[in-house]
Specification:
The complex is a heterotrimer of chains A (322), B (289) and C (527).
Chain A (H helix, E strand, L loop, with lengths): L2 H32 L4 H6 L6 H10 L6 H12 L14 H36 L4 H14 L3 H15 L12 H35 L2 H8 L4 H36 L7 H10 L3 H29 L1 H4 L7
Helix pairs in contact in A: 1-12, 5-6, 5-8, 5-10, 6-8, 7-8, 8-10, 10-11, 10-12, 11-12
Chain B lengths: L1 E2 L3 E2 L2 E2 L2 E2 L7 H23 L31 H37 L1 H15 L3 H12 L3 H27 L3 H8 L4 H38 L10 H10 L6 H32 L3
Chain C lengths: L13 H6 L17 E8 L17 H4 L1 E2 L1 E3 L5 E3 L2 E8 L2 E6 L13 H12 L12 E8 L2 E6 L5 H9 L1 E2 L2 H6 L17 E7 L3 E6 L10 E8 L3 H9 L5 E2 L5 H8 L2 E5 L5 E5 L10 H10 L2 H8 L3 E3 L6 H4 L5 H10 L7 H9 L8 E7 L4 H13 L4 E7 L1 H8 L9 E4 L32 H12 L3 H18 L2 E7 L1 E5 L3 E3 L17 E3 L3
Classes of the chains: A mainly alpha (322), B mainly alpha (289), C alpha+beta (527).
Chain lengths: 322, 289, 527
């Protein structure tokens, strides 16, 4: 694609993102507005409160203003990236999010790497050893992994490593890079199981198709080594569907983190989302929703860009006889 | 079954036709599926104890004579609750898989066959839904409005339809240029008849396989929502709810936590295997067309 | 979120109230211990985001670093602390004399200006503790070391409020950091034995011993806090030896099993569980229905369902709270004269037979989703099933529960709920009764407002003698026990988990939040 083509492509996506953010923030706002309960009651619980306290909080968070006024008050600050203070903690929303984002991102990336390595690797090994024990074993493991949701895997891993074998820590995020790796291994594995399974199946299927292609037979007949054939032809073509799935997988691990964060006591974005939804903490929920939307759109954009860059049929343009 | 071979120059050639026999693994999966259907319908009646019956003097007992899987934190029999939980584990996913197959197939047929504007609109919608993080949306809605099992099922159904639509559309696009479709059109068969009676049967393997996949995925998804507190109510014997409560009693009766987890994995695995097998059967039979 | 064990000070003895006497300026208790603990780790699931005492309501970090003018002794009496003496010259005035020579961590001296500023900050509308100080008209520094509190009407609970929630911090620091006071980057400036060095809401906090603490040597050099998302993780950390103490446990029984730690539990007069019925709406408006339910509930079984570590109670005002205004003999006499509905399914059925629903009925009961509340509500439903009442448990979010129960009186649902602690004074449950609490945003959940009750509530609070107060509350208790708008069920113990390497000297219900900084009482287990 020409650089002008790239520019158009990316800017079109960014416009879509902007529209999406507006729609999402309005939807979230409307949802909290119409749902039962008040944020003040969520904050104060069963503690007695003075009318003055209630008035103060109502004014502070604009809870008695008309519907559109409230939304506008939030939106006009949000475009300047001022997302306000959390109702629950009265700390700035942005600082709460930046404190928790690294854990979720680390967890997501760790799970992503595991999925790519074991998913693609497993798929390739299975395809190359078709119908033999390795293949059957990997396929069977993939089906079970596919059927094990992240939270079940997490709970199972906790049982194994808290009761049976004391190897990995079963709670907390750790401090420092190596400690983080150590602590986040179990949650990352739990999160990665389903993705690994999907990728093993897809990669295996793609590899098998490639293995049967004519051009592979010709290449081998011409005397190219097995390894060369594998790397140059088979992998490249088999990996294209993998790349298309990677965007989906990336957004899955970031959003699926919420399932394992509470189980393993990880202070991440998932926790913030769950808490702010149940306590009607509008400033926090809006900011997290915006963040998730941005992450997902950017992840998909990255996947699409990679796909276009990798697939020569698209890169060279149509009609060039790929 | 061997057929009599043709004697050729004194040497008997025996051709062996492979019979499409059902592998033993499939029998196990069918058995499990049957068990689940029975439990979903009659679980509460078949259970040894009333799943809600509390016994506060025998709390968190380990598996033993009276209670094969032990008791939970209110003294309720875990085995009975597992059996009763099959209903919420299977009912929602059936609705989701079935509903998504019906509506997703319809939209996919329309998009793939009609093309043009309809296709563009439907695919725009599919792309939009594709990028929505379903889990988070359901959590936010359930968190704000209040958790409800059927609310979660409804939302999940809406989020699953786009996947079926896309898959079926792809299959329909493959079928549309085939001669039989052209022939039917030439004969003046109505569009909707072509879609439903001619194209759809050929697309069925993919659609049915997807339905099984959706069922298995929904089992895990709904249980996950209940685990977080956004699905079935806290007092129900739902497997996700039981897993969440059992985790707190990890050291007292771990079976209370392992049993529902095992059931979720078992259910999803069996259905996934059945789905794969059904796909193989349907597509090998239809391959002749 | 846990509800603040904010105990307000009640008049401890009759003599103190009537004579307005001053307590003798006692020498500071010896706080030095022979062996010093180098480091100590506390794990907690309580969300510590902001240690501003008016926002981090119930923070276990503030309790170690900020001190108060007075503190509550194990018996519930008020003792001077930062103040050297407290006098009560008139029913509407309290005068606190500050000790000299106390310094904040930055070296500035503690003066009455700091104390008055802190207390005014805590009673402002923006403070989550302001409901404890509603009777205050003004708080002023009437001298360099003298603070005077003037009330607009007599209020025995005020003295408790100062002892449990009147944290003293430096006025200059708070003004310089207005708006960010207590935030992780800014923290606080106090006089306490441990100075807060850092706070990260996701991981933990660090406190170090204050080398110039006014009472002498601090027994623990470094305290670290670790934060956990749930009890199970904290218990696992305990098991791995990573934390030494957890002062905030939701379910002590499963925590004990999972962690292997020793649970220290003290009976309280608050953190209670109540069953409330809207007396203005069917089927609850039939007094026979309410009495039937009172007879049908087996408190011991319900406590079992809750996980133990709780004490049953049957009077709307717990006996412990009455002990401040009456003698044991008087209280026994009162209890003998009240209908208390001891567990009896037979009598429950008898009462139900006399009601409009002799064959039972079906009705929803709202509960909020937190901890064990829903499963205990299930246990209660199980008990009521046995007499033919089909109670449907309706779990809702805390936000929705609050709005429902403080909304229009005719729509307030029947509910099972637990409350926190505000004060050990007998007026502590006034917020659940009376006409004023029928207003929107207030919690007379039972919509119980017979003509005599308001007068009795007012008398109970403002009578000038303990005897007068006790008489009013006795009459009120009799009304409540006859009418049964609320069924008191049990009082949670205040439980903490402590590693067996340590012991807690003199542990009682006030230890963690309302007394001296609690870590001062931690000693090595074997000397």
């Amino acid at each position: 694609m020409t650089s002008r083509g790239w520019l158009l492509f990316i800017s079109r996506r960014l416009v879509v993102l902007a529209v999406l953010l507006v729609l999402i923030s309005f939807a979230v706002f409307t949802l909290l507005y119409v749902s039962p309960g008040s944020a003040i009651n969520a904050l104060l619980g069963t503690n007695p409160r003075t009318p003055g306290e209630v008035r103060f909080l109502t004014r502070e968070y604009h809870l008695n203003r008309p519907f559109l006024d409230q939304f506008w008050l939030w939106a006009s600050q949000a475009v300047r990236l001022h997302f306000g203070n959390s109702i629950q903690t009265s700390l700035p929303v942005t600082s709460e999010i930046t404190a928790r984002l690294p854990t979720t991102i680390f967890l997501g990336l760790y799970a992503f790497v595991l999925i790519m390595v074991f998913g693609v690797g497993g798929g390739i090994v299975a395809a190359l050893n078709r119908r033999r024990l390795a293949d059957r074993g990997i396929v069977a493991a993939a089906i079970v992994a596919l059927s094990t949701p992240a939270f079940v895997g997490g709970v199972g891993l906790i049982w194994v490593f808290a009761i049976l074998v004391h190897l990995f820590p079963v709670y907390g995020p750790g401090a420092g890079f190596v400690d983080d790796l150590w602590h986040l291994t179990l949650p990352a594995i739990a999160l990665a199981l389903t993705g690994m399974a999907y990728l093993v199946r897809h990669t295996r299927a793609a590899m098998i198709t490639v293995l049967d292609q004519d051009y592979v037979t010709f290449a081998r007949a011409r005397g190219l080594s097995r390894a060369r054939v594998l790397l140059t032809y088979q992998l490249r073509n088999a990996l294209i569907p993998v790349v298309t799935m990677s965007g989906l997988i990336l957004s899955y691990v970031i959003t699926g983190a919420v399932l394992v964060e509470d189980t393993f006591s990880l202070p991440g974005i998932g926790q913030l989302l769950v808490q702010s939804a149940t306590t009607k903490d509008l400033p926090m929920l809006q900011a997290v929703a915006m963040l998730v939307a941005v992450v997902i759109v950017l992840a998909n954009l990255l996947a699409d860009v990679t796909y276009i860059a990798v697939d020569p049929r698209i890169r060279l343009g149509r009609g060039s006889g790929g | 079954m061997a057929s009599a071979g043709l004697p050729v120059a004194g040497i008997r050639l025996v051709t062996v036709r492979r019979r499409a026999s059902v592998p033993w693994l499939m029998w196990i999966c069918f058995g499990i599926a049957l068990l689940l259907v029975v439990l979903a319908l009659f679980g509460t009646t078949l259970a040894p104890y009333n799943p809600s019956a509390q016994n506060l003097s025998d709390v968190l007992a380990r598996p033993g004579g009276a209670h094969w899987l032990g008791t939970d934190s209110l003294g309720r029999d875990v085995l009975s609750r597992i059996m009763a939980g099959a209903r919420s584990a299977c009912l929602g996913p059936v609705v989701i898989a079935g509903g998504s197959m019906l509506l997703g197939n319809l939209l996919g047929l329309l998009a793939g066959y009609r093309g043009g504007r309809i296709d563009a609109i439907i695919m725009r919608w599919v792309d939009l839904m594709w990028s929505i993080p379903g889990l988070l949306v359901i959590i936010v809605v359930a968190g704000a409005v209040g958790a409800d099992y059927w609310l979660a099922v409804g939302l999940l159904l809406i989020l699953t339809i786009p996947f079926d639509t896309r898959t079926v559309r792809g299959a329909v696009l493959e079928q549309a240029p085939r001669p039989y479709v052209e022939a039917a059109r030439t004969l003046g068969v109505a569009d909707w008849r072509i879609m439903i009676f001619h194209i759809w049967p050929n697309v069925l393997p993919v659609a049915v396989a997807n339905a099984f996949l959706n069922f298995a995925g929904s089992v895990g998804f709904l249980a996950g929502l209940s685990f977080l507190g956004f699905g079935a109510p806290v007092s129900s014997p739902d497997w996700g709810v039981q897993l969440s409560q059992g985790l707190q009693s990890l050291f007292q009766n771990p079976i209370g936590m392992l049993a529902p987890g095992a059931m979720i994995v078992l259910t999803a695995t069996s259905v996934n295997l059945i789905g794969d097998w059904v796909y193989e059967q349907l597509s090998s039979r239809g391959a002749g067309r | 979120m846990r509800f603040r064990l904010a105990v307000t000070v009640a008049i401890a003895t009759a003599a103190l109230v009537s004579a307005g006497c001053s307590s003798s300026p006692s020498a500071p208790k010896s706080a030095a211990v022979t062996s010093s603990i180098q480091s100590f780790t506390i794990g907690t699931t309580f969300p510590e985001n902001n240690i501003d005492p008016t926002k981090g309501y119930g923070s276990t970090i503030s309790s170690l670093s900020l001190e108060k003018l007075t503190e509550i002794s194990p018996s519930g009496a008020i003792e001077p602390y930062l103040a050297s003496s407290v006098t009560h010259p008139s029913l509407l005035t309290y005068v606190y004399q500050l000790r000299h020579g106390i310094r904040f961590w930055d070296g500035s001296p503690l003066t009455a200006a700091d104390a008055a500023y802190s207390l005014n900050y805590e009673r402002a509308a923006a403070s989550q503790e302001s409901s404890l100080f509603t009777s205050v008209k003004s708080i002023t520094a009437s001298g360099p070391y003298t603070v005077t509190i003037t009330l607009s009407h007599p209020d025995p609970s005020l003295a408790y409020a100062v002892a449990s929630s009147g944290f003293i911090f430096e006025k200059k620091f708070a003004q310089e950091h207005a708006g960010k006071f207590g935030n992780p980057g800014v923290l606080i400036m106090g006089t306490g034995p441990w100075e807060v060095r850092s706070l990260d809401p996701t991981t933990g906090a660090q406190l170090t011993a204050n080398p110039h603490w006014w009472r002498g040597k601090v027994p623990i050099q470094n305290i670290s806090f670790k934060f956990f998302a749930n009890d199970t993780s904290a218990a696992l950390a305990f098991r791995a030896g990573e934390i030494d103490m957890d002062p905030f446990i939701d379910g002590p029984k499963s925590f004990a099993a999972s962690s292997g730690a020793r649970i220290w539990a003290a009976p309280t007069d608050c953190t209670n569980a109540l069953f409330s019925m809207n007396t203005s709406v069917a089927p609850w408006n039939d007094v026979h229905v309410r009495r039937a339910i009172a007879y049908a509930l087996n408190r011991q079984d319900i406590i079992q369902a809750e996980g133990g570590y709780a004490q049953p109670y049957s009077t709307f005002i717990p006996v412990k709270m009455l002990q401040h205004i009456a003698t044991g003999a008087q209280i026994s006499a009162l209890l003998k004269s009240l209908p208390l509905y001891p567990y009896s399914p037979a009598r429950a059925r008898q009462e139900l037979a006399q009601s409009r629903y002799p064959h039972g009925f079906t009705a929803p009961v709202t509960v909020f989703i937190y901890g064990n509340v829903v499963s205990t509500a299930e246990a209660i439903a199980g008990e009521l099933q046995k007499i033919g009442i089909n109670m449907q448990v309706k779990p809702v979010t805390l936000a929705a529960w609050g709005t429902d129960l403080s909304g229009p009186p005719a729509k307030r649902p029947a509910s099972y709920f637990t409350t926190g602690c505000n004060t050990p004074d007998a007026s502590g449950y006034d917020w659940l009764i009376g006409q004023a609490n029928l207003a929107p945003g207030q919690y007379n959940a039972a919509v119980w407002d017979p003509p005599e009750s308001d007068k009795l509530i007012s008398q109970g609070l403002t009578a000038s003698t303990s005897a007068g107060r006790f008489a009013a509350y006795s009459r009120l208790l009799r009304l409540i026990a006859t009418d049964v708008p609320y069924i008191p069920l049990f009082l949670h113990d205040y439980s903490i988990a402590l590693s067996s390497k340590y012991r807690f000297a003199g542990y009682n219900q006030f230890s963690i939040n309302d007394s001296l900084p609690y870590a001062l009482s931690i000693r090595p287990a074997s000397p």
